[in-house]
Amino acid sequence: MKTTPDTPVRPRAEQELYIENNYWQQQSLGSLVSVWRTQFSNNVALIEAGTALTYAQFEQRVLAHSAGFQQLGLKTGDHVMIQLPNNLDFVISCFAMFHLGVIPILAMPAQRESDIAALCDLSNPVAYIVPNNYLGHDYIAMAERIVSACPSIEHVLVSGNAPATAPFTPLSQLASTTPVVAPSIDPSSTALMLLSGGTTGTPKLIPRSHNDYHYNAKASAELCQLNQHTTYLAVLPVAHNFPLACPGIIGTLSQGGKVVLCPAPGPDEAFPLIEQHKVTHTALVPALAKLWLEAKQWDDTDISSLQLLQVGGAKFATEQALQVPEVLGCKLQQVFGMAEGLLCFTRLDDPQSEVAHTQGRPLCDLDQIRIVDEQDNPVAQGEVGELQTKGPYTIAGYYKAPAQNQTAFTSDGFYRTGDLVRMNQSGNLIVEGRIKEQINRAGEKISVAEIEQRLLTHPYIDEATLVPVPDAHLGERSCACIISSQPVSLNDVHQLLKEQQIARFKYPDQIISLSFWPLTAVGKINKTALAKRAEEEYIETSINQSQSTTYFEKIISVQSAAAQLAPWISELSTNPFKAVYESKSAWSIGIGKVVELYSNGCEITLQQGEKIAQFSGESFAELMAQALQSLEFDNWRLYGVAKFELASVFHGIQTHTEHNKSLQLFLPEQEVRLAESQATLRALNEAELDALEALVQKADKTCAQAASIAALTPLQTPQINTQYKDEYKASVAKAVVEICNKQYQKVILSRRIQVPNSVCLNKSFRFGRLNNSPARSFLYQLNDFSVAGFSPETLLEASREGYISTQPLAGTRALGNSPQEEQQLREELLNDTKEIAEHAVSVKLAQEELAQICEPSSISISEFMTIRRRGSVQHLASRVCGQLSDNKNPWHAFQALFPAVTASGIPKREAIEAILRLEPNRRECYSGCVMIVDSDGFMDSALVLRSIYRADNCTWLQAGAGVIDQSKPERELTETIEKLTCIANYLIDEKTLAEAES
């Protein structure tokens, strides 16, 4: 096989054959844009979100970016690493580079520093194109590290906002009106490089020429009968060969069709686009096709325009293949191929049995295939063997990979695919597996060798192997099998790979520990036996998780009012873990801790007795759902606290909080629910249930005999007027300056007031509850931390049916000393433009946050700017509601809304940063939330304000005020005094009480 130093080329005779038979049309990919404009000028070519480009506009954008690239100094033969999601910048940038003969290297958005750095080391790109942020990952920070390690990179081009320093340049500023000096491009030269799945640590680079890739796309489009009426939805990452050119984007454009770019492949993103744009064609991997089939059972979006669904990337289960026409209402086409070349399709007129059971036959009559045994001898018809191929669009070798090319290609130029197939009598292939050491997880290829090498860097892992295990959702999941000197958890492995900047999809899904390897007869590790053991352990774990513990229950009558009885039950219990939560006249008391769940915002730990499970990944909400599904109890209710610092993780300011328990939930050993003169008692065994009954009866009797709490004299706290007064006003003044400088619109700044440790939280809570009208009240003790208070608003209310609401309060006045003064202050509040503006932006932000996680048509404002009396103050209040989208859970809502806008600011991220700068203390629980969470999806979460706090032998109050550009430091100080009064007026001092009683 004739080769060049970097890129192997086909023999000259083969090239001439492809040209003579018009398979290779001798055009560069960049020149096609002008051809398409001539043919389809006013047709819409590309759509992303609200932007649509005609073929003429597409050509204009490509030429403008070509000129911009040329002015940067990019020239024919240069390499550029491009790592963009499905957007217009990706398509335009690629074609602009094709026009200049610059070679884009197509990296996946999911790839991280380890892969990108290795690819840069191999290819020496002169530029790197990235988004500024995508799915929560900071590509700017990653690019900075890549550039520092790769001296060939001169420019980082950013889709979105970019730093104003070299080497960063926004792609939006790149376009130039200067005419392009178009170079002469050899159509047989490399046009782009795709990435191989890789059986070694670094993906190999697959050089595709202008000639072969144009044929790849155009022939696929003709086979699929695409035309000017086709609308193709690009849902898979478009750096993959499948959605880019099989027929994908390039094939659709070659026929004058329309391409709609979808930001994510889930049905909640894709189905509305199909309905809106009347999509006719799209492509999925089997795991996503299964998800779409499931979603369509409940989703009523009109996707009837869909004519053809291609499924490829892995073998599609027959039972699911048979469902596609009935459930999705379109034809199915199975596609089997590889970025290295060969494409096999079932045909549109194939019988259903062929479509459902086979992976198709080659695209081209010049595709040569053979199925061979281990000695490269052809197998008999219908027998399984390795597929080998060559043809007009299959490469002759990888880029700069002479060693791999020696083994990946035969002496006569056939590519060894590593796929095990058999051919049926009609000539269609049936894929039976692989001989390569790869795991195909949901269409993404994982190199076994790479992950095994990474695992061995853990100090406790002595030996490791990675095996594929069949999985109903992923096709294959990966299981790390280890021999270790000390216990190693799955979370330990995930943390190891995270530190090494490995893509998330490569993390093992399961881990098993062994003392020795099972061996085959020839002494090799028996991976079949390991996979079987992994499957058995997985099933056993699932069974154990389904064997849940049930609470014993009993209902008894009580005489005392719940508002007094609930804190008495808490006070009489000596358990250091307990919680009282009032919600809409229903009171719930949890005592003791049988399970604890806690998080630093990045990782979640679940401790059930001696069992400890850890969950880590990129989606907090999904991890919470996984952790809660692991609870070994039925009909549970959790009680918990989320500290304000958790917000810094949710908003990308920190990767994790300093405190490992910034979110802390516990499942109680005993529980009391009070309503209408009766108590429902719950405990884990009958003995504890009896003990709980005795405790409630004692509390009920004590409550009836106790002297009226209303007769007590509260502690005098004059320091609420003066403590930290000057420091607070100075912080407000700084914030006003920052707001006027457009750093943010609004921030809530607070001050902390120390009170004596002799204050009794229980008695203060009972006394305060008599004199407050809160949205929620609560009394929590979690070992050495306690909080008691009266929340003016709910952060989140989630029903069992997924209907959620939030209640932003903004705008405050005192109640005054008489009904007349209260009415006067109310009128003043309703006519104060500063307070109204502050409230309106809070409501607007709440709507925007719900739009992220709710069905758009369901979002409403059920009440607007009503007055709510909360203790000694009155507020402007509104309520914003919505129905959760079907792929969202209450924790998505919690993450979107936390922290409450009325305790942080607008925009939240910038406001949180300001709070961290301008306040002298960590907020901890202040402006966080307390909550109860039920197993059926119900969640009730209250904003922690108007509270008293105790931790680390210190007791304090805290209150804040909203600062905007019109704020005056003296007025905001007054507002903190008004809010502090809601709790300060009702503090009961144990020392003073003892002296009075004596």
Automatic annotation (TrEMBL):
Pfam families per UniProt: AMP-binding, AMP-binding_C, Chorismate_bind
InterPro entries for this protein: ADC_synthase, AMP-bd_C, AMP-bd_C_sf, AMP-binding_CS, AMP-dep_synth/lig_dom, Anth_synth_I-like, ATP-dep_AMP-bd_enzyme, Chorismate_C
Top-rank taxon: Bacteria
Record protein name field: Salicylate synthase
Domain AMP-binding enzyme C-terminal: 450-524
Domain AMP-dependent synthetase/ligase: 38-399
Species assigned in the record: Pseudoalteromonas prydzensis
SUPFAM superfamilies the record matches: Acetyl-CoA synthetase-like, ADC synthase
Domain called Chorismate-utilising enzyme C-terminal: residue spans: 725-979
